[in-house]
Amino acid sequence: MSPEFLARIPKVELHVHLEGSIRPETVLQLAARNGISLPADTVEGLQAWYAFRDFPHFVEVYVEVSKCIRTADDLELLVREFLEEQARQNVLYSEFTYTVSTIEKYAGLAWKDQFAALQRGLAYGAELGTEAQIIIDIVRGDSLERAQEVLGWVKEGLGHGVCALGIAGEERLGTEMYAPLFEEAQALGIPVVAHAGETVGPESIWEALRLAHATRIGHGVRCVEDPELVKYLVQNQTPLEVCPSSNVCLGVYPSLAEHPLPRMLDEGMNVTINSDDPPMFGTSLTEEWIRVCREFELTEDMVFSLMQNAVNAALLPAERKAELRTALREGFAEAAE
Fold it and tell me: Could you tell me which residues are beta bridge partners of residue 138?
């Protein structure tokens, strides 16, 4: 399957972080205009900085980049540029994770101002022909009171560009302390998308399923270490948001060749392919498809099936999913001509 074909096909992405998608040039631009000191002042320097020793080092760099966002205009610019890139890659629909609490903490930017900027950015994306919704996440380690505030923002934004409550950050810190909030979210019908099974093993996935009532699992690749969990995920067809290059860059697996994606597919898991933090991991959604197709010899039918998985797992009404399925079929046919 040619890279040209993979570039042309329509796509859907469910696991990508807004702050982790900032173009390196824009990071430097925001740092300069907002008086933020970074370890690098060139694109090449930033790319060298993005050589992560481990997950804590990644979080450290991620937070420093996030601190460059100071105003509502900065935030709107990021959404617009992100959606321009998604449109360029023929991504029809995206769900991106965004950490409101971090920007409020370091920039003092109120939720209402962030929300308005996000909505303006989404409207711009619609003009480009690419649709998106936002997952607002709790950062593990934050207080229960802070997490309650995040849930409040999700409740306010639900149906107005926000589609779910997320939880991310250091998996070793656990999910248990936030269980009451997830019970409340479930009672309100708010979907939960939980990062788990990336830097911590199967126990973090079980916790996300049992305590957070997770609709989808972000990453989830460590599930292969637990046969009972594999069986559960296959039986329930729980969607897994797999980000292969991210897993390699953060040392979850030594190389793409050693990634468990083929086994996950062979077991019949409900897998989707995603880019996570593309500039930080030297990738893009299209590049992820090129890499996995080359490494694991995926067929066109397999790519189509995985893309359908993403549509099915999207937090959208049934009629909108049906429209996306039609667009995928037509787009694949056109790309193959």
Answer: 167
CA-CA-CA-CA dihedral for 229, 232, 237, 241, to nearest 10: -20
Closest alpha carbon to 166 in 200, 188, 196, 187: 196
When the candidates are 3.30.40.10, 2.170.150.40, 3.20.20.140, 3.10.450.50, the CATH number that belongs to 3-336 is: 3.20.20.140
Alpha-helical (H) ranges within 278-317 are 285-296, 300-313
Longest dimension (CA), the chain: 55
Give the count of beta carbons closer than 10 Å to the beta carbon of residue 252: 20
**Domain parsing of the chain, residue ranges:** 3-336
Mean pLDDT by 10 residues, the chain (337 residues): 93 98 96 94 94 92 95 98 98 98 95 98 96 97 96 97 96 93 96 97 97 97 98 98 97 97 97 97 98 96 97 98 96 88
Write down the residue that tokens 């060139």 correspond to.
42
What burial letters (b/e) apply to 44-64, b meaning 16+ CB within 10 Å? eebeebbebeebeebeebbeb
Q: Are 240 and 271 in contact (CB under 8 A)?
A: yes
DSSP E strands, 47-148? 91-98, 131-139
Residue 198 is a catalytic residue: yes
Q: What is the pLDDT of residue 46?
A: 92
In our burial notation (b when 16+ CB lie closer than 10 A, e otherwise), range 7-28 reads bbbbbbbbbbbbbbbbbbebbb
Of 13, 95, 198, 241, catalytic: 198
Cβ atoms of 101 and 110 closer than 8 Å:
no
